[in-house]
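Deviations from the work plan: none for this task. Representative record:
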Amino acid sequence: MCKLSPEQWHALSPRLDEALEMTDQERSTWLLRLRVEDPTLASQLELLLEEHRVLSEEGFLNVRAAEVPGAASLAGQTFGVYTLLSEIGHGGMGTVWLAERNDGRFERRVAVKVLNIALMGRGGEERFKREGRILGRLTHPHIAELIDAGVSQAGQPFLVLEYVEGDHINHSCDQGGLDIRARIQLFLDVLQAVAQAHANLIVHRDLKPSNILVRSDGQVKLLDFGIAKLLENDGQGAESPLTLEGGRAMTPEYASPEQMKGEAITTATDVYALGVLLYVLLTGQHPAGSGSHTAASLMKAILDTEPTRPSDVVAAQTNGEGATTAADRRATTPDKLSRMLRGDLDTVVLKALKKEPKERYRSVTALDDDLRRYLRDEPISARPDTLAYRGTKFVRRHSVAVALAAVAFVGTAAGVVGTLVQASKARAQRDFALRQLARAESINDLDNFLLADAAPSGKPFTVNDLLQRAEHIIERQGHTNSISRAELLTSIGGKYVDQDEDTKARQVLEQAYEVSHGLSDPSARALAACALGAAFARKEFPRAEDLFQEGLRELPNEPQFTLDRASCLMSGSWIARERDSAREAIARSEAARDLLAASPLRSEYTDLRLQLSLAESYRAAGRYRDANSAYEHVSALMSSLGRDDTQTAVLLFNNWAFALQLSGRPLEAERYYRRAIEVSRADNSDEGVSPMLLTNYARTLRELGHHEEAARYADRAYAKAQLSGNQVVINQSLFVGARIYREQGNLDRAEAMLSELEPRLRKVYPPGNLAFATLETERGLVALARGDAPSALQHTNQATEITEAGIKAGLGGEDYLARVLMPRSDIERQVGRADDAARDASRAVAILQKTAEPGAFSSYLGHAYYTLGLALQAQGKMEAARAAFRSAAEHLQASLGAEHPDVRSAVQQAGPNAQRQ
Amino acid sequence: MGPTISALIGAAENGDSVAADTLFSTLYSELHQLAKRELARRGGAASLSVTTLLHEAYIDIAKRDGPTFPDRARFMGYAARVMRGLIIDHARSRNAIKRGGEFEITSLKTDVGEKSVDPKELSMISDALDQLVKVDPELAELVDLKFFCGFSFAEIAALRNLSERTVQRSWEKARIFLHRNIRADLPL
């Protein structure tokens, strides 16, 4: 039985989708990997793909059922006074027909352009008329003329154009064996025509050999101003959707860097395409080099690689066969050809091909002038590249990743729409489930686009720029599938949340929420509600929680909604964390984990999100051991997904470092923070670095004793936090700043920061929040530094009360208590209450011993032992004190490094004293 | 007067098999009538493209049925399926006896040489398509639109609001499926 069963097909179909998008090389590695996972599926796929290759060669089903090749369906129909003879071309907008007059008045054959039926009523007619208007204004002997325009009896619009029988300009030159001068002469005709169009404020935008024909009488004719953009405002506005659609219709080989990047298109765009054409005419090669190109490599070449000088290209071929023919076709030898091109022609071509539009010839006429000067042996105006210029190339490198990313995104968006439309009708559960998975994957792709591709370069495009761009793209697709629109908006909003851009996140997510409400799709509605909830987590707790609950309620309790439910639970976990309900956060993350464990729909991507959510929740609850192991899991997944340099990785390293810091491992924390900063930083500025990350880094530097650097980072963090308007980050940066300035002895500044902090905290947190315990502790330490011990004690007592109550209410782990007990112990000791001091210190040690990873060294534990040692000393228990100092020295040395001053004093207290005994 | 095409489509989509049959035969005779009428209007020698025919059918029926009429994409889906039947019947009948008076779906000019698909192969493709309908109806519809009705990828992409690339990829998949079901002797 060799027919495909439905089951087989459903298993194979999504794989075929994947495979058919790959190059041969990608496909073979992919199959190799698949063979390990699922050998049966892999060998079936291999057979089908081989069959596909044969089918494509044979042209299976290429002949239409009811059609005779060469005599397609419109033949014989009349449009106005023209009768269609045969089809001569077709494109996205319509078909082009060879036609002749049927009233016998005029012998001339014409080309009739007929609009695709499917485009009628979708703006196609408008575009058609527009093209007609543009062409009507252009009369030039080298531009194919618009003869007539009209609407057929059946209501179909058509254009009648001059019919040009000719050959592509590059073929024509090669066929005729034209020498360099003759080629330039012909090229000058093209320039004249384009200059005329530019004078009419029309940019061609798609100049390439297939649009530039040479007739048998040697006349050049430019065709297809179909995607021309009017520079002036013609009532449509220069930014109408039509021009945007036109923008995408470029031909990669002749596209300029600005077209690749989606930037403004001007007459310089045509200058660039003409530069490519001249390069091809002179050397027989494309500036990106010979051989085949993938879209990505071509794009990279266009954006990044300075083309080889034409003279070098032909010189390099001297040994090869190709050069002989290229030179032959130019009626010369490779050597002579190279010499002919070297110098002025190199300079002219490379100037037209500058990446920066401003650096190219200012106009087609300027290019024309230089070529005419060359032909007259006069000095040309363009200057060869200087060294200084070559240096600036470096700066441009960064633009590639972004442009590639933009293309990747357009692909992704299309992919999402496709998946959803295909599955939008009610279908079998299996299809539904597959769709869910596909959706998770496509959102994964969106991440890859936004983060993987964008983050390494960081600047000059920040991730936020990209998000804005993605938003804009979706905006532009306004009329397309609203499910995918809601989902993409949701995903983009989620990214803003990750970026701490809460305000933007809420804007986008409100939009997603609104769109989703017009939909019957429970997934889209639930995800939009939960994501919006997450964005409100820091601003309005009740609203956040309501939205989360609403999202959960949207989802029917059926297995196909498992992924959505898990996703919502993860948002819920985030909301709980932001509200400091660590216990609830863990409960929600673990519920998500259990759902996914039982679901066949999980993917690496969902695992990644889940582990991150678990790690965060454990961290919030002070379960650092669990948190660290989850983070390690995340890090491994991230590597396997190739995301080590992404914004998600920044998030991971930051949070992991934070957990490490809280478990008393600042040396490791410092490494991961630095890694996070390096990934998100570009051009050695902190522009792309999140203020929260800067704050955390400052805190760790402080702990490691790098006070000045810590202060610098704290200041930058504060400034950036202010700019971002994120309250949580502003507060954190104030905390860290206050601590650093206090330790540096700048008590006024520290106190000023705490005063700024208090009302802010009051505004957002209920009185029992642990933040107030930290605030009281800091106040106490400032008071102690000022010599006001009673007040210091009062503050730390209060801190202890708040913390004890908070822990009871599930707001945080016990380790928080250890952290307020230590400073209290110090103060108690200094006011002569040695017993209290010793009690607090040993309590802190006990707590930290309990929460620390077994066998791991912790700076907190080290400090707790040190505090205990001092308290025991005060009690006169010298032996016990030395034991405590020895433990302190051990922990501190391992966690802070031997050079740290605290380590030195611990060693001192433990060692020499012991000897003196 | 029988139920409108809109009503039939609605009922068929709700699983009413009688309505589905009625829809099929009604559309069949509508398209047949329309083709004859159009050819008469254009003069006997002229030919008529399948896409144009479907387009005009759409306009005709939409006008008659009023605002409840489904969108173009849905209509084309059904009509393309019917068109397939029409083409196959036509090919079979032409194969059996060269009858006069029937309409030609396209011009088959002798000077170009008749290279259209063999009626037997057409039947096989159609049978395989019936299998595909059960497994992946949207792929099947795509084959109706592309192979039988001559819509271009661009047109289908526009109809379905998909990217041209996606349509093309689906087409490649459909070809694999059909070929596999026609040549069942291939190993897997």
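Chain A is about 65% helix and 5% strand.
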